[in-house]
Amino acid sequence: MSLLDKMTIWKERLLRNIPLWATFFMISVIVFIDVALLHRLEFLVAAIPILIIVTLSVAIALWRHYHQPKEATS
Amino acid sequence: MTTGLWVTIPTYLAMIFLIIHSLKYRGGVKPTIAFFGGAFIYGVIRENMVAYFNPAYVPVGFIGVDLWIGLATLWIIVGWGYAAYISWYLASLITGIDKPMRSQMPVVATIAGLIAAAISFLIELPAVAAGWWVWNFNPAQVYYFMGPAEGMPLLTLGGWAMTVGILLFSYWAIAFHKTRWRYLGIAAIALHFLQLVIVNTLLTLG
Fold first, then answer.
1. B112-169 tens-digit pLDDT
2. B51-105, pLDDT tens digit by residue?
3. From the CA of B205, how many Å to the nearest CA of chain A?
């Protein structure tokens, strides 16, 4: 696989997962506001539920991707 | 003011990328306009209704950096489309269903709603602390979180979940399905608005 092919695949992955990056971006912005602007370290607790959900959803999606059932051939 | 700038500009920037994603992967121009346009109209109506019927909720906005549409700020209105879109995406990762069939819609919408509740936890705390909006419910009537999440009413978790769940359910029903389901989608939104009026009026009266 050439470098160009690899770059095309990564560009496709990057674009396909924009909402995932948007989620991380949102979490980063809010964490920055909590810590740097509001100086409320305790608010970091609030990021835990969405971080658990994101981790879980990515893990499930990856599991599904690598364990796709073989289509029945008859 | 400062916190307002830090949250509005990234939100609008990220929205542009979400729109690009929708154009490329969720069926092109028409569904994208339908989703983000629909979410925008929904946001305008919802936020104005809540601000009008519930004096305990005060949208402060970011002076100088935010636009107002009636009683609601543009950032909050746009935020519903943002929250609904990423909740839909994460729900589709969990379930493996991108465009739900009729029987799948309630389950996927519920999962997306729960994801939105998790997002609400993240947003509501700095919002209350920085004064982006204010909750003035009577603490004897509405349960407020204690400890690190102090100042955030428990009610908001359900509000976010219900809003995103119903918004997505109605969008799927209207955009992807035929006649009867379209009516069901419209009815769900109409009932949701009625429920908002009743709940907010009751909270005010109580």
1. 999 999 999 999 999 988 888 888 887 777 788 877 777 788 889 999 999 999 999 9
2. 999 888 888 877 666 788 999 999 999 999 999 999 999 999 999 999 999 889 9
3. 31
Rounded Cα distance between B127 and B110, Å, is 25
The shortest C-alpha distance from B179 to chain A (Å) reads 30
* A72 within domain boundaries: no
Tokens of B84: 């609904």
Q: What is the spatial distance between Cα B40 and Cα B3, in angstroms, rounded to a whole number?
A: 23
| B149 contact residues in A (CB cutoff 8 A) | 45-46
Compute the distance between CA of residue B143 and CA of residue A39 in angstroms, rounded to an integer: 25
A73 falls within a domain? no
A22 and B86 within 8 Å at the Cβ level: the answer is: yes
Contact A37 B3 (CB under 8 A): yes
Question: Considering the domain boundaries, does residue A51 fall inside one?
Answer: yes
Measured distance CA(B121)–CA(B114) in Å, rounded: 11
In a domain, A26, yes or no: yes
Is A26 in Cβ contact with B10 (below 8 Å)? yes
Q: Specify the number of domains making up chain A.
A: 1
| Domain coverage including residue A13 | 3-66
* Distance, CA of B182 to CA of B178 (rounded, Å): 6
* 3-class secondary structure, B68: strand
SS3 state at B117: helix
Within its chain, how far is the Cα of A10 from the centroid?
Answer: 14
Question: Nearest 5°: phi and psi at B197?
Answer: -65, -50
Query: Please, are residues B62 and B73 in contact by the beta-carbon 8 Å criterion?
Result: yes
Q: Which residues contact A14 (CB under 8 A, 6 or more apart)?
A: A21
Q: What ipTM describes this predicted complex?
A: 0.90
